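I hope you will forgive my troubling you with a question about protein structure. You will find the record immediately after this paragraph.
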Amino acid sequence: MSFVALKMLIGDRAKYIGIIMGITFASLLITQQSAIFVGLMTRTYGTITDLGQADIWVVDPKAQYVDDVKPMQDTQLLRVRGIDGVAWAVPMYRGMLKARLADGNFQTVYVIGLDDSTLMGGPPRMLEGRLADLRRADGVIVETVGAHDKLAKPPRVPGGPREPLHVGDTLEINDHRAIVVGFSQNTRTFQSQPIIYTTYSRAMSFAPPERRMLGFILVKAKPGEDMQQLTARIERQTGLAAYTADEFADVTINYFMKYTGIPINIGIAVLLGFIVGTAIAGQTFYNFTLDNIRQFGALKAMGTQNATLLRMVLLQAVMVGFIGYGLGVGLAAFIGYSASNTELSFRMPWQLLFISAGAVSVICILAALLSMWKVMRLEPAIVFKG
């Protein structure tokens, strides 16, 4: 009977393609919008994932997420270093400053100041130059996307493309000269501002003077140290907040989930994809069953049980759902791959595939239920009516 069910499904090409198109559209929209949501959330804590050397981030207890820098007193660094279980602790500056470009325009940049002696907290990958080059006079390392885009130099000829920065070029950050000594590859930030690395002391000279300048304290635990006990010890002895990298990423995500409209805006798009996909696939599948109601009636008149007919309908729903889901996910992956070097935030982890598969399964089940209800109430005598 499975062969008969598939023959009935494929025999009506127009409706067969229509059902698959509906499920494909729903799968594409659900997967693509969800991947954009995951990509946006990933960007919110990109600074944390880019920094792999430290185990614990120590911040002001009122800091709500990684970009919400509440400067601390420099003496807090010494207090943290003296806590049992801390292998090392280094300062880190992070702030938004104005960079003056070659054409006279200003661009806001993220300046990250690394510990002068160790340079801990540097970029995850160097594309040109070395991290140690930051020790050269006025040296800064620029994130490559910013160097090719927002910090690029004016075109040589009117109407031509802007020229990317090169090693040796000069920037002006808050009226201080900065010389480019290298380029790095970083995770895109949520606000897509260029990232500039320099030493902690140089970042202090770039930034406007304040009574408190220390943004973060990066801590490395001694081998075998329990992270939860160490963070609790740091908080108890300093009055500051201490998070592991995963905990700080969760704090950042929770802030954006609670205080921004991103979840509801993208959630509406995902819900629309689900509703539209259900409506198109359900309606087309139901019409397909109605068009084949005489064939189902004939099978019922020949003694086929309701359970067998239901299995036939379910097999048809599974087949179109499987094909539509594969096409939709494939298109979403292609869009994400094509836009991998653009501002589009797109991340499709394997868990997302299971979520979209679950949503598509619900669509197919709803579509099949509509048709099953009609088949269950079918009278075999319909075959003999004119």
